[in-house]
Amino acid sequence: MTDPNLHLVVMAGGSGTRFWPKSTSKRPKQFLSFGTAPDAPSLLQQTLSRFDGMVPESNRVVVTTRLLESAVESQVTRAVSILAEPQGRNTAPCVYWAARAVFEKDPKGVMLVMPSDHTIPRLADFQNTVTRAVAWAKSHDDLVTLGVSPTRPETGYGYLKTANGLTGVEGSGGFGVEAFVEKPDLARATEYIQTGNYLWNGGMFVWRADVILKAFDDFMPEMRREWEAAGRKVEVAYPRMTATSIDYGVMERARNVVTFTLDCGWDDLGSWTSLEALAEKLSARHEAGVVTGGQAISVESYGCIVDAPGKLVALLGVEDLIVVQQGDAILIAKKDRAQDIKLIVEKVKATRPELA
């Protein structure tokens, strides 16, 4: 049964380049599907559907950019509201605007702030954790972040250092947050895993709208000042708002931050190589590696990632390659250079901007 005081805010303004050529500036990762079925839902649609039965459709908001507004409209129902930013200013202004919208509609509203481009294979586990976080946020003036239970010493994520466990039935599985920790090197990440009191910072939040607005007043008072000076006109206020992340602007400075441990197979799909972990969870590996679109045959080929919708890709005597075809563009790269695909995108922008 949906809760009329729950409000879902999905952040969908990113324009990442790591999944080029499948992902472009006009069709970034959140609008893509990485399933093998041609009609598989996009990551944005999957994000919204995770809250079916929890959040009414009329209480769902997608925050995106003007450039991507029509793309969002094509993927959501009419009941879902869209806040189209006049310009990208990182996540703090995005959250502030959404909090204002929720508070004006429902002063008692609890916000679920979620990225639009993550995968969560075990939905029931995710929803159980969210339910506990919501119960805590309703009855406590805390900022709740969902900390992901780490499965490896990951150097690509920030971490949450946990403190004492929360008390009471509502606090089951919850902890205070002692510190936000930047992305570590491998040795430090290994140490974090061994100590057992560190979680990955997944960038997912639960809080009452009034609590996060007070936190903005405490740590970023300029946000309210600019908002009110502009007569609450987004076009005027937004360019003046501090362009920073919600972590830097508020969360790392607040003392009322708690976390609930999320163990649901979460992955942020940060690059093409992250599809290998996803394929393992979905038991979808191919003899040559991972095939997310199209068909592959291989002879003496291993560890490759292939995405070429409608195409047959033949692999002979190769290892650890990324092979992606989308429209008129084909990418062939070594897997260990997956984080450098943005270098290719910069060259494409200069020579074939219509493909970037």
Task: Explain what you see.
The protein is built from eleven helices and 14 strands. It is of the alpha/beta class and 356 residues long. The protein has two domains: 6-262, Spore Coat Polysaccharide Biosynthesis Protein SpsA, Chain A, CATH 3.90.550.10; 274-355, no CATH class. It has a five-stranded mixed β-barrel. The longest helix is centred in the middle third of the chain and has 17 residues, at 123-139. The protein is globular and about 60 Å long.
Q: Fraction of residues in helices?
A: 25-40%
How many discrete structural domains? Answer: 2
- CATH classification, class level of the largest domain: Alpha Beta
Strand content: 25-35%
> End-to-end span in angstroms?
43 Å
Largest sheet: 5 strands, mixed, barrel
Low-confidence stretches: none
| Name of the CATH homologous superfamily of the largest domain | Spore Coat Polysaccharide Biosynthesis Protein SpsA, Chain A
Estimate the global geometry from the Cα principal axes: globular
Structural class: alpha/beta
Strand order of the largest sheet: 5-8-6-7-9
Number of strands: 14
- The CATH architecture category of the largest domain equals Alpha-Beta Complex
Could you spell the SSE succession in H and E letters?
Answer: EHEHEHEHEEEHEHHHHEHEEEEEH
Gyration radius, in Å: 21 Å
Number of helices: 11
Mean of all residue-level pLDDT scores: 93
Could you name the CATH topology of the largest domain? Answer: Spore Coat Polysaccharide Biosynthesis Protein SpsA, Chain A
